[in-house]
User: What shape does this take?
Amino acid sequence: MDGWLKALVAGACIVVIAGGGYYAWTEYERADLARLNEAARQRVATERRAKELAAEGCRPQVEELLRLHAERPIASASDVRGDLRKDISICLSHDIAFAFEKNELERTGLAQILRN
Assistant: This one.
């Protein structure tokens, strides 16, 4: 094979490898950005929900949880439906529940079960 043909094949290989590397890098960056955007969206939604819950001191959520616990004792977080579990978790992690509600959650052991 002539020297110029070898150089042409080598150059084509370099271009293909570089193009593949560039494509892989941009896809990685795009996926990472999408993951970060989703995490930010979840943080904003959690903070918004925390403000809503703080207005009532988590009283309705705690009352509902205590009612469910009285009907059938709650032994694990999976015994509580998702939206209520998330609300109580937000109340505990943001420390926005009123004192009586916090005391009831601690007294019944539910705070320990549902704390993240």
Summary: Helices lie at 3-56, 59-71, 82-93, 99-108, 110-114. Residues 3-114 form one domain. The mean pLDDT is 90. DSSP finds five helices and no strands in the chain.
